[in-house]
Amino acid sequence: MSNVVRRHRSALRRTALRRTALGVAAALALGAVAAAAPASAHTIAAAPGSSVAAGRPAPPAPSTSTGYGGAVASVDAEASRIGLEVLRDGGNAADAAVATAAALGVTEPYSSGIGGGGYFVYFDAATGEVTTIDGRETAPAAMPSTAFDGWTFQQLVSSGRSVGVPGTLATWEAALDEFGTESLRDVLQPSILLATRGFRVDETFRQQTLDNEARFSVFPETAELFLPNGDAPQVGSTFRNLDLAKTLRQIALFGTDEFYGGPIADDIAAIVQDPDALGSTTYPAPAGFMTADDLADYEVLQQDPTHVEYRGLDVYGMAPSSSGGTTVGESLNILEDFGLSPEDVGQSLHLYFEATAHAFADRNAYVGDPAFADVPTQTLLSQEFADARACEIDPDLAATKPVAAGDLAATGCEAAAAAVAPADTEGLSTTHLSVVDRWGNAVAYTLTIEQTGGSGMTVPGRGFLLNNELTDFSLTCSGTDPNCLEAGKRPRSSMSPTIVLDGGEVRYVVGSPGGATIITTVVQILLNRIDLGMTLPEAVAAPRASQRNTANNAPTPAEAEFIAAYADDLAPFAQFLSQVGGPNAPGTLAGEIGAAAAIEVAPDGLMIAAAEPVRRGGGTGVVVEPAD
Ligand code: GLU
């Protein structure tokens, strides 16, 4: 596999996009939208029984829909519907994915948006090729590798120092240029309207705001936007983000240079270098090193996907800098060596835990940004390496955790073990969307600003939060760790946008948020669907557990429903469970693992768009032509 094929963005191209005559005409049209909206308050009370966004009854937002002609699944009803409209109007999967992602930046501003980054996986039905865009944030050029020294993780979370150079907007541009049929200007329009007219605040949005209240209140711009009148927006009120509408409108009219080369870049660099905290001792908000030049120099990477075969299917994912593709792939390759079935669910889940524990040991030891570390991507994806790892697994008994990373040279059951690497911290943030169009093209796109609420810093007057993605680097670094902080490096991710082909046609599109649990969630959904006899909606809704090579032989973190359903089946294998979240975890979302959005395309063309029925307040799966 050739890793980095080429870089995408070029300053010349960006310059050519600016201020055309068409742009001026569009500016007038788009400006009219903003003028129609009130310019002051961010939230207003909702009229009883009405759709706050458009003054009409809100149509139902099903978590699952079945039909033909194209499908979209995401965590949010407005975003899925905006993607669906693009498909209905003749756009393809890439067009719809960018439109959906832009809408998620409005309605899920704590999980995604133009202040962050992500990974875009695209299947082109005409050529049969899968391509990926790595839009991961990067460490600024002037950032010293000692920049985290003396700071705690919690201090870095709400700081300028953890902000990576954002890649989301460049990803959208590259996706449309390479795979799409519509302009960025066109696909941003629904989100400009959405940000202008507002959306209905639900319990998830209010709870996420409350979970972040302490640190949001430290940053005046963030407090003004997300804590109007000193409180999180009430459930049922309308949340408007006129600053974001203006920012998106400028980008729509004048191109991505407006962000990467204009005054927005200056504003980003300014707040990163001076986070403008109020000086509380609990929020020192260490300054960052980003300059406007870092933004001008940002480039997405277009690279080959990861690939493994599993039960006769072709599974494609994201190569490093994400660990998603290699770790999902290695887990499946290990499971390929075992028979799994719903008749013996206890042993199947035991093997699932052992496979992901071993794959995580290898991820932690070997995966980082391949531009800086020697990442053995081919070996981690090879069936021979997985066979050697499978030899170490007892089909009847859990191994003591953590298990050691594998010897990369091992090809048989004599595999020797290397040193144990530390596990990493987890979050509940990020968002994923899946799209399939009428032609069979598909997109799996996971995007994030890292923690829920990112760095907590809103770019003044621009309406979006900046990421804190650089906390995904190892905080303390040993000599062999491939994920040490370095200038210009991308931090290792767990995001796992995944496309599964069957005989060259798309069969499943899957992904989820959830930090490192993303990897186990994607593996578990595929296992549920392919091996354990569940339908796709059942596979998405099923209770989850996430074994990531736990320290000190601790029990596997699991949702309460998983413990209730499977603890007795797993006990004979010495597999023990502990509930995720707990009394000290913030908010109501802490007991959940992930928030998946998936699509299945049956051999006869029937599409099943399956989002979460419950987690994160439930997502929305929609299709162009619903089946009876
Ligand atoms: N920053 C994480 C990653 O790239 C995702 C954040 C989350 O989902 O908590 O893997």
Automatic annotation (TrEMBL):
InterPro entries: GGT_bact, GGT_lsub, GGT_peptidase, GGT_ssub_C, Ntn_hydrolases_N, TAT_signal
Catalytic residues (UniProt): T430
Record-listed L-glutamate binding positions: R136, D472, S493, S494, G515
Chain positions covered by the region annotation Disordered: 48-70
Post-translational note: Cleaved by autocatalysis into a large and a small subunit.
Protein's pathway: Sulfur metabolism; glutathione metabolism
Stretch forming the signal peptide: 1-41
GO function term, MF aspect, one: glutathione hydrolase activity
Its EC number(s): 2.3.2.2, 3.4.19.13
Reaction(s) catalysed (UniProt annotation): glutathione + H2O = L-cysteinylglycine + L-glutamate; an S-substituted glutathione + H2O = an S-substituted L-cysteinylglycine + L-glutamate; an N-terminal (5-L-glutamyl)-[peptide] + an alpha-amino acid = 5-L-glutamyl amino acid + an N-terminal L-alpha-aminoacyl-[peptide]
Keywords per UniProt: Acyltransferase, Glutathione biosynthesis, Hydrolase, Signal, Transferase, Zymogen
PANTHER family xref list: GLUTATHIONE HYDROLASE (PTHR43199), GLUTATHIONE HYDROLASE PROENZYME (PTHR43199:SF1)
NCBIfam families per UniProt: g_glut_trans
Record family assignment: Belongs to the gamma-glutamyltransferase family.
Quaternary organization: This enzyme consists of two polypeptide chains, which are synthesized in precursor form from a single polypeptide.
Protein name (record): Glutathione hydrolase proenzyme
Annotated organism of origin: Agromyces tardus
Higher taxonomy: Bacteria, Bacillati, Actinomycetota, Actinomycetes, Micrococcales
